[in-house]
Amino acid sequence: MHKLMVMTRAYQMASGQDERNARIDAKNEYQWRFDRRRLDAEEIRDAMLAVSGNLDRSMGGPHPFPPETTFKYTQHVQFFATYETRQRGVYLMQQRQRKHPWLEAFDGADPNASSPVRTSGQTSIQALAMMNSAFLDEQSDALAVRVGLAYTTEVDRIGYAFRLAYGRAPAPEEIRESVKYLAAARAALKESALPADRQPRAALASLMHVLLSSDEFVFVD
Questions:
Q1: Residues 93, 82 contacting (CB under 8 angstroms)
Q2: pLDDT tens per residue across span 104-129
Q3: Could you state, in order of their start, the residue ranges of all structural domains in the chain?
Q4: Residues 6+ positions from 181 with CB-CB distance below 8 Å
Q5: How far is 116 from 130, CA to CA, in rounded Å?
Q6: Of residues 114, 108, 57, 51, the one with CA closest to residue 82
Q7: Does the pTM exceed 0.85?
Q8: Quick one: DSSP state of residue 38?
Q9: 220 strand-pairing partners
Q10: What is the mean pLDDT of residues 143-153?
Q11: CA nearest neighbour of 161 among 101, 102, 206
Q12: Number of Cβ atoms within 10 Å of the Cβ of 13
């Protein structure tokens, strides 16, 4: 059944606009194009881990809960914990009392209720999470190392990063803007306290952060 669905013409369509079809069916009720969709919270997280090379594809195991003999939790002193893992989002611990910080920011499902349909609202909290998340900083740095080890020139590194993040080659204008961005980042880092030998990596990681936090990365077209 899954194969039948993914092989259909409707499933394989992109979200591009067609003025003729739009005049006939503005709401896309007859599926003449794909409705652009933001990735779910788990999908965004897993995609970042995959692109950076950090995704652990192994099956999930037990969470490192503290020994029961140490439990001193009460109604007013509740148990809260977030166990970081590089495994897929399906293995993240979900507590009833408190959502996982990343999943909560991106409309993760309520663990207390059945969620047949996910919401995907865009909020300022999501933008702030993309800008300030330690998780995203870690994946950006790992992606910078990955492209930095794969190629020696800026243009080749930029091209590889675009292929990993977006599945396409960058346009000439995107290459020019990326090269300009790296030059500006390196110049700004010279005024920082970061050691000189770590500044090129930090500049490249900054560009990777831009790619991973872009609309093109978190939306399916």
A1: yes
A2: 888 877 777 777 777 777 778 888 88
A3: 40-221
A4: 206, 207, 210
A5: 26
A6: 108
A7: no
A8: E
A9: 37
A10: 96
A11: 206
A12: 14
